[in-house]
What does this fold into?
Amino acid sequence: MRRLLVANRGEIAVRVMRAAKALGLETVAVHSDADAKAMHVSFADAAVRIGPPPARESYLDVAAILAAAHETGADAVHPGYGFLAENARFAEAVEAAGLAWVGPSAKSIEDMGDKERARMIARAAGVPVLPGSARFGKGDTAGIEEAAIAVGYPLLVKAAGGGGGIGMRRVDGPDQLLKTVEATQSLAERSFGDGTVYLERYVPKARHVEIQVFGLGDGHAVHLYERDCSIQRRFQKIVEESPAPGIPRAVIQRMADAARALAAAERYRGAGTMEFVVDAVTHEFYFLEMNTRIQVEHPVTEMVTGVDLVASQIRLARGDSPAVLFPAPIEPRGHALECRLYAENPAKMFLPSPGRLAVFETPVGMEGVRVDTGVREGDEITVHYDPMIAKLIAHGATRDEAIRRMLAALGATRVEGIATNRDFLMRLLDNPQFRDGDVYTTFVDEHRKALAS
It folds into this structure.
């Protein structure tokens, strides 16, 4: 492996390129017209335009990306997260073109990308799974009322091929069911090209906890402990941390063992994440899905374990011996949090706030603090893509120390020209209930008025 093309944009593209350059690889960026002057383009050794800003005409254009790889002499492709990262056909096309694919096999992507199939595989491996229904294709609602009764209200209507909180809607009673199912099917078809949905039991007071796994592709896998991702808005994460506060370590160990066993049974290759819903009262846990890619929140795990997950992905794909990737037992140290800084207005239901970053300053040299970003002062946050500006990650010997460092880092962050959620994040971290570790997925909804003002 000599030259790596990163089939993505923004923060994750820059992150992957940093890891690749540290390993001695050259890097190739691809970009839409809207990203012609973006940070990831200037950071790469070579860059190729692949189309106009709608993702389907650029970052989702497989032929254009493969043509860029051949044009620049790239011999490997890293998909980052989002876009084509969990597209089995893209993985197959990359390998068919004679390029190294930095990710799991197309079979694993296909197995785990279909939420219902993933649930069946998890159940067969002995992993607890929430009650759910069979799948219902676009326009198919026959028998769905009976399925909902069997699952039980409240429930979630979920896109079978969805992710990132997209295509997920809560239903509290039968009067809302059909309308919600039809709307979710339409959204899923627009977003993923697949209008299939299924029903899943909703846990009223739930924690969202995920286990980072890394498979060696030969039936062996390791886990790198957990991340608590319970602080969310619109089913999308905004704060993640490790260890998960308030959950007994014995429960986390069972969850980690289940995740590692499932990755091993799948003969999984590379970085992946097993997501679980945890009953905040009983601490019972249930498999939700597996993300067959690097996660947005992967720096949390890197900070507590010292493992560079992106470099490990690249090293495995280029043929480094699996035995040398994790030569010693992985032991976590301290506590880490990640806050996602977004161009959005919390007072207006987190409405995106596109515009130019007239001022953008982040802390430099602050102890225990890391900042991952794909934008610079003067750059434009456009309407075409996710409005995340940066990720701030803080590590400390204790949770309290990590929170103090995060508050200091956020306080030292200046953004002018657009609205952001910075002050919202600071109020959240200062919330007494959050400080006590009493977190759950509806936390933001229940405290929105106090946090947003």
Notes: The longest strand covers residues 221-233. The chain has a mean pLDDT of 95. DSSP finds 16 helices and 22 strands in the chain.
